[in-house]
């Protein structure tokens, strides 16, 4: 058993709502392949905590009470590029999605996600994959197509 606990995916949760963090923690820790190693409720707290606990994956809210999870993501990834970040948000916002990707996020998932799908998403990102919420894929592809068309002109 000690060997399997050494291989657990180390997760840090960042959300300014305690009840959300507690729900995510209960969900994640019900999976024996993951453990929550830290929590934060704001931008600077997230940056500082990530530097201390060295998570494999950060589950980050896009909008925090003291600023943007996008900025926290950028700084966490600058300090430790091997840390993967999943943006977990209520908002299906194209601009936030693209800003998150540019900041280094590996995933963008809406909070309406089913519990099992979120756990699979965390595992996928920890394994080096990138992912988008299926409802956002069309917007991403359309924006990329428009960008490509602009480059042709």
Please characterize this protein's 3D structure.
- This protein is of the alpha/beta class and 153 residues long.
- Helix 3 (43-53) runs parallel beside helix 4 and helix 4 (69-79) packs parallel to helix 5.
- It has helices at 2-6, 18-29, 43-53, 69-79, 94-103, 115-126, 134-152; strands spanning 9-14, 34-40, 57-60, 63-64, 67-68, 84-89, 107-110, 131-132.
- The longest helix has 19 residues, at 134-152.
- The strands form two sheets. It has a six-stranded parallel sheet with strand order 2-1-3-6-7-8, with helices on both faces. Strands 4-5 form a two-stranded antiparallel ribbon.
- Mean pLDDT is 88; it is low at 1-5.
In round numbers, the mean pLDDT is 88
- The number of distinct helices, counting runs of at least 4 residues, comes to 7
What class, by secondary structure content?
alpha/beta
Which stretches are low in confidence, meaning pLDDT under 50 for 5 or more residues running? Answer: 1-5
- Strand coverage percent: 15-25%
Gyration radius, to the nearest Å?
15 Å
Strand order of the largest sheet: 2-1-3-6-7-8
Summarize the structure.
With 153 residues, the chain is of the alpha/beta class.
Secondary structure: elements and pairs:
Elements: H1 2-6, E1 9-14, H2 18-29, E2 34-40, H3 43-53, E3 57-60, E4 63-64, E5 67-68, H4 69-79, E6 84-89, H5 94-103, E7 107-110, H6 115-126, E8 131-132, H7 134-152
Parallel strand pairs: 1-2, 1-3, 3-6, 6-7, 7-8
Antiparallel strand pairs: 4-5
């Amino acid at each position: 058993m000690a060997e399997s606990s050494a291989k657990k995916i180390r997760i840090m949760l960042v959300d300014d709502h305690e009840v959300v963090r507690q729900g995510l923690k209960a969900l994640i820790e019900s999976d024996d392949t993951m453990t929550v190693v830290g929590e934060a409720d704001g931008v600077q707290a997230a940056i500082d905590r990530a530097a201390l606990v060295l998570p494999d994956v950060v589950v980050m809210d896009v909008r925090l009470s003291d600023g943007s999870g996008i900025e926290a993501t950028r700084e966490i990834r600058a300090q430790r590029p091997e840390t993967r970040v999943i943006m977990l948000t209520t908002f299906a916002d194209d601009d936030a999605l693209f800003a998150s990707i540019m900041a280094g996020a590996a995933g963008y998932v809406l909070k309406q996600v089913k519990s099992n799908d979120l756990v699979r998403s965390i595992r996928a990102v920890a394994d080096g994959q990138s992912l988008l919420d299926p409802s956002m894929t069309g917007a991403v592809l359309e924006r990329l197509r428009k960008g490509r068309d602009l480059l042709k002109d």
